[in-house]
């Protein structure tokens, strides 16, 4: 089902990944990953999605990212970031004129 916020103008590069099962008891089947996400001007990182079972953090390196959640739009520029927990339901966009670049670190199911 589409919510009208399908991804466009987004590129994702995996920077690092660690098998948490080999590192921490009880974390079997999970991995910690770090990605660099670039959202071009006018780009959308969607669709509307949650982070249940996939907690993470985001840090903006360049540009401005608008985070849409709970009926509120919040702009994050360089040096700012946010948490993504089980209560997060959002989508992102770049309303600016330059690419927006973020570092995203999260825990996901191991491939």
UniProtKB/TrEMBL annotation:
<protein>
    <submittedName>
        <fullName>Cupin domain</fullName>
    </submittedName>
</protein>
<dbReference type="InterPro" id="IPR014710">
    <property type="entry name" value="RmlC-like_jellyroll"/>
</dbReference>
<feature type="domain" description="Cupin type-2">
    <location>
        <begin position="36"/>
        <end position="105"/>
    </location>
</feature>
<dbReference type="InterPro" id="IPR013096">
    <property type="entry name" value="Cupin_2"/>
</dbReference>
<dbReference type="InterPro" id="IPR011051">
    <property type="entry name" value="RmlC_Cupin_sf"/>
</dbReference>
<dbReference type="Pfam" id="PF07883">
    <property type="entry name" value="Cupin_2"/>
</dbReference>
């Amino acid at each position: 089902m589409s919510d009208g916020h399908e991804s466009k103008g987004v590129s994702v590069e995996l920077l690092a990944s660690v098998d948490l099962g080999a590192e921490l008891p009880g974390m079997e089947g999970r991995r910690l990953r770090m990605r660099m996400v670039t959202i071009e001007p006018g780009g959308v990182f969607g669709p509307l999605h949650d982070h249940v079972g996939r907690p993470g953090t985001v840090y903006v390196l360049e540009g401005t990212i608008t985070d849409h959640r709970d009926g509120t739009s919040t702009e994050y520029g360089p040096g700012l970031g946010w948490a993504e927990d089980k209560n997060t339901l959002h989508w992102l966009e770049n309303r600016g004129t330059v690419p927006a670049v973020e570092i995203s670190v999260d825990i996901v199911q191991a491939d």
